[in-house]
Amino acid sequence: MINLDTVKPVTTAAIETRGLDIFYGSFRAVKGVDLVVERQKITAIIGPSGCGKSTVLRTFNRMNDFIKSARVSGEVLFRGTNLYDEKVDPVEVRRLIGMVFQKPNPFPKSIYENIAWGARINGFHGNSDDLVERTLRQAALWDEVKDHLHKSAMDLSGGQQQRLCLARALAVEPEIILMDEPCSALDPIATLKIEDLMRELSQEYTIIIVTHNMQQAARASDRTAFFTMDTDRAGIMVELGETSQIFTNPRDKRTEDYITGRFG
Q1: What is the pLDDT of residues 56-65, one digit of tens each?
Q2: Superfamily, domain 4-107+176-259
């Protein structure tokens, strides 16, 4: 097996796809994606519904493995290693590339155990108290829950639950954090807290976010990738660039039409 922890990065990219095609059975859902994600930046993936945004995101940590009909061709490179090499352990991939989902999904356990138990099943043997406090502080949640650590995580508000899920992801010390529409179920105040948190965390982590909210992409990301559907309904990446360039001076008319609301 390949131990990704011992593999040294060979490029400046945090993760990169080359000729990425994703299939569900005989249907090609995504085709020909060449995407370079820069380290310690926030990259937003935007585009109309059905264009493969979340499918691509889940490919980065092999979450599509859980779908029997899904298969991948091309390469997804992390530290220069193809994550779909048969010698790569997908469990290790998901430790190094964490994920926060659209709907908060805390374990039906205490706030404390959501982090401590989640870390232990991934091999953590250190001081759980320190880990819980550190990650809750990273997720800007410590001051709100420090006196209620042994209460159920299910009693938290939606925004607090989402930040707890982020803390749980941080507890296993990933390099990359994937966020799939993390604010779609949250109110505007909770959404801004998550965006502020993303900005702070990007000083240490690489963040990739899928969002339908173009204002959020414009506010929170450094780089933006625009996806759309080709004539055969397969998702394709149209362009990737600095967020300011994508939103003010897109190179492709399809991007401009989507940004300005002419379609999508």
Answers
A1: 999 999 999 9
A2: P-loop containing nucleotide triphosphate hydrolases (3.40.50.300)
